[in-house]
Amino acid sequence: MQRLGDTVRAAIFAVAMTALSGCGGGHGSGSSSSGGSTSTVPGGVNLQVVSFGDSLSDVGTYAPIASAVGGGRFTTNPGQVWSQDVAQYYGGSLSAAYTIDLTHKLSAQNGLGYAEGGSTVATPASQSDFLTDVIGNIEMPVTQQVTSYLSAHGSFNANQLVLVWAGANDVLRAGAPPAATPIVQTAATTLGQVVTQIVQNGATHVVVVNVPNIGLSPEGLATSDHGAALSELSQTFNDSLNAALQANGVQTRVIQVDAFTWLNGIIANFQSNGFAVSNTGIACDPNKTPDQTALLCSPATYVSANADQTYMFADKLHPTTHLHALFAQYVEQQIAKSGLGH
Fold first, then answer.
1. Domain assignment of residue 1, yes or no
2. Residue 25 vs residues 63, 107, 162: alpha-carbon distances, Å
3. DSSP H helical ranges for 201-320
4. Which of 80, 102, 226, 254 makes a 20 to 30 Å CA pair with 25?
5. What is the rounded distance in angstroms from the CA atom of residue 74 to the CA atom of residue 314?
6. How many DSSP H helices and E strands does the chain contain?
7. How far is CA 3 from CA 8, 64, 130, in A?
8. Mean pLDDT in each 10-residue stretch from start to end of the chain (342 residues)?
9. DSSP reduced 3-state for 311
10. Looking at residue 101, what is its pLDDT?
């Protein structure tokens, strides 16, 4: 992994100190908790969005530091991730439940975006080395994210839309099959238990997104088998998650979103979806982007001025603003098909 240079590191420290010195009581949750339909809301119903997961849904856990170089989310900054788009569609907004501070510790805020870049389903943060020079080993696994929410709020309610998207990091860190297969299966089964916990604690509108086809990401294509193992493990995770949801009796009580099949289709038809470059390139210039991560990507590091709209991937794993927006629309369509809003 490319290390941050001293100049960038100093900039991060200076900006983070300024931001943290004036942060006061933290971010607001930003999302209406009221229920019912209203014609002024695009989705047709007001819902408070709560989100659990990893970098694909992280709305700004590391923004206090990453903003020093124009970053903040794992996409083509300053663009939004899909969970923010969905929250706006249902009449609110979504901010981080925790943000990093100068001591590389997480500080509780008032937001409901619990998803954190680097998180797995259940593996403790100390088990991985994720951008340690920027954020340290602090990411909460999804099991802990849900526990943290319940500790703060007690339960879920019928006026909430709960988004759950996790497992990609479990697949990426599991190794190669066949040894990796039971590791991935265990992670998926655990996620099924977490979803069950969410439902049992009062959530009536729960969206569960499966793992996308990681083998088709630029990261996957760069492997020796051109992503075959990662595709296999992605599907293994999804099959195991489906089995767990069914075994736990909650499959009919959640809205399942098939990101795996959706991404396959978008890549196959990338030009008709408004992209000039499919999964064969990245929008954030690796020679300009610190640590070559979308977290620290900004317009100054794009490969071209409109790369956030013309490329599918920001870096080797994370969607651009345009791809996030398309996925949000797909999720909203699946929610509408369940009978909730439009």
1. no
2. 16, 11, 25
3. 218-221, 228-247, 259-268, 307-310
4. 80
5. 8
6. 11, 8
7. 10, 19, 12
8. 40 43 34 47 97 97 93 98 98 96 85 95 69 66 97 98 98 96 98 98 98 98 98 98 98 98 98 98 97 96 98 98 98 98 94
9. strand
10. 80
DSSP annotation of 253 reads G
For residue 304, what are its two tokens?
């071209």
Residue 100 backbone dihedrals phi, psi, to 5 degrees: -80, 150
Token pair for 13: 């420290």
pTM, two decimals, is 0.89
Query: Distance (Å, rounded) from C-alpha 31 to C-alpha 279?
Result: 34
Which CATH number belongs to the domain containing residue 176 in this structure?
A: 3.40.50.1110
Bridge-based pairing of strands 98-100 and 106-108 is antiparallel
**Nearest Cα to Cα of residue 290 among 164, 146, 131:** 131
* Rounded Cα–Cα distance for residues 116 and 145 (Å): 9
Residue 98, domain extent: 6-337
CA dist 306 → 58, 136, 293, 294, 309 (Å): 23, 32, 18, 15, 6
In the chain, how many domains are there?
Answer: 1
